[in-house]
Amino acid sequence: MQIETVKAGDTLYAIGRTFGVDYRLLAWANQIEPPYRLAAGQALFIPDGGWNRGGGKGAAGAKGARPVAWMGGYAYPWIDPMVLEETADYLSGISVFSYGFTGEGDLVLPEAAGERRILAAAARRHVCPALVLAPLGADGKFNNRLVSALLQNLKAQRRLIGQLWNVAEALGYGEINLDFEYVLAEDQTAFIEFVVRLRAVMNVFGIRVTVALAPKVSADQRGLLYEGIDYRGLGKTADGVFLMTYEWGYTYGPPMAVAPLHMVRRVAEYAVSEIEPGKILLGIPNYGYDWPLPYERGVTKARSLGTQEAIRLAVDHGAEILYDKTAQSPYFYYQDGDTRHVVWFEDIRSVSAKFALLKELGLAGAGYWQLMRLFRAAWLLAENEFRIWKES
Fold it and tell me: What does the alpha-carbon distance between residue 264 and residue 366 come to, in Å, rounded to a whole number?
């Protein structure tokens, strides 16, 4: 396995010949469609020539001593069936986003048909399904008042735990994942106590309880996103945690990498100082952003796009893809009419850098937000770097 950066004038056929790999295999691995156009600066995953096309363990995936890792990610019920089926081959777990709840402790269910489709794919591929519980209001946004209503009401908690157990047992969920964001500082201890109560019930039936954590770098970090999240307390009481190490670059923020490695490292290093590394999944974004320039705070809005969409945009506009060595992230500029744009996104180099950090710190694995877009090269790289944990 290698990663090759395209130079001006390179062709897929010539690169394949250099590495002894059929150009059609290169195209498949990197999701490049005919007429196989490339962008200068584009990173290509170069698989072993013996890799089985169509996904599955080939020569590259079989060689070398590789650590066992958990690979997972979040999916909405409306995930494309073809994306779901292929991605599930490379997963340890898949998290269905999302169940909600009321202040009285009643579950709010996701779209049923899509949920069943995800659960069926997980069962076929021996992938552990996780029920995600999030405090989403009627507007679809995270609501910390809903969190407070639940955490201050023991009767509502017991009601919710009972309903969660009924659903998990009926549908075969192996994990409950709590994605409680913007927890108030005064609810910090109550949140930990809720995790203790939930785990006491779920673990009896072999169901794990995990928690998604905002990206903190210190225990006393200020801000609504951080103050209610106690890394040490939640790491001790939960079966595992998911670090949401992304969204430094975001829709309304200034242009920058979504998950700059130097910032991801700070969060991960703080996490291992408070939590057992074998409990931690490193969050990886499966998207980027396109900002119109100049950026104006409170006015400029970036649009989200996937890796393949970003690369096609660079190809279409003849843009050279650059790479920030500090952030370990690719970016490029392009002109659309009178408007100049900048795009920051994830590619196989930035994912490889995050995998290296994962191995360096001895983390349990990685989880993607989210799985709605296929990023085949990232999954082939994961199979090359790790022995992906699967349910027996």
Answer: 13
The Cα 77–Cα 371 span in angstroms is 11
Return the CATH fold of 1-62. Membrane-bound Lytic Murein Transglycosylase D; Chain A (3.10.350)
Q: Which residue has the tokens 């709840």?
A: 101
CA dihedral 276, 356, 322, 314 (to 10 degrees): -80
Measured CA distances, 95 to 73, 80, 91, 147, 352 (Å): 6, 15, 11, 20, 23
**What does the DSSP 8-state code read for residue 262?**
H
Distance CA 174, CA 383 (A): 23
Q: Indicate if the alpha-carbon torsion angle 77, 81, 84, 85 is positive or negative.
A: positive
Domain ranges of the chain: 1-62, 65-286+348-388
pTM comes to: 0.95
d(CA 204, CA 200): 7
Positions marked active-site? 181
**What class has domain 65-286+348-388?**
alpha beta
pLDDT in tens, 47-106: 987 655 444 444 344 456 799 999 999 999 999 999 999 999 999 999 999 999 999 999
CA–CA dist 125, 90 (Å, integer): 9
Do residues 33 and 24 touch, judged by C-beta distance below 8 A? no
